[in-house]
Amino acid sequence: MDRKRADGQLAQIAETVGLARRLGTRVWLRGGWAMDFFLGEQSRDHEDVDWFAPAADAAALAAGLRALGYRPLPGSPPEQQLDFVRDGLESSFALVDLAPDGRVLVAGGPWAGTAWPAGLLDGPPGRLGGLDCPVVAPRAQIEIKRMMPLWDPLRPRRAKDAEDVARLREALGLASEARD
């Protein structure tokens, strides 16, 4: 594993959680780092750090990240996702709306208002080393990793997603499943 890259990403995770606290908002790790924080160990190298963040707080979060030296990356629709880079390390924030009934909804784009999996943000924080961080609930992580190729046919199933699902299922004590 690329220890320098991982250490840089972990430092940015800690910094982002601290920024969110100072702003009075929340962020939740998603993707590979969320799985690793749930498992309590790094399982592989990660290309970037993926987050969920409330759309209502996106402007304040973006301003805070810029103040910390992060540069916005062009390309993603700003009502759906914010992408930043600092020191060659990328962080992406998928924006969500938090409905009064507790559902977590896609914030923008063609799927705006669509519910994410139930319980998405209800899991306990994960821990890796001495760092605690809010993470996507593991069962929701499994559903997202399994369903993404169906929800978005332009995103094919990846071997690392199948491996992540198997790791999460094992950690949760769920029976293994046949590969889709």
Fold and architecture overview:
The protein has about 180 residues and is α+β, with helices and mostly antiparallel strands. It has a single domain, classed as 2-Layer Sandwich (Beta Polymerase, domain 2). The protein has five helices and eight strands; from the N terminus they run H-E-H-E-H-E-E-E-E-E-E-H-H. The strands form two sheets. Strands 1, 2, 3, 4, 5 and 6 form a six-stranded mixed beta sheet that branches. Strands 7-8 form a two-stranded antiparallel sheet. It is globular and about 45 Å long. The mean pLDDT is about 90.
What's this, in brief?
The protein is an alpha+beta fold and 180 residues long. 38% of the residues lie in helices and 20% in strands. It has a single domain, classed as 2-Layer Sandwich (Beta Polymerase, domain 2).
Topology (elements, then pairings):
Elements: H1 3-23, E1 28-30, H2 31-39, E2 49-54, H3 58-67, E3 71-72, E4 81-86, E5 89-98, E6 104-106, E7 126-128, E8 131-133, H4 138-151, H5 159-172
Parallel strand pairs: 2-5
Antiparallel strand pairs: 1-2, 3-4, 4-5, 5-6, 7-8
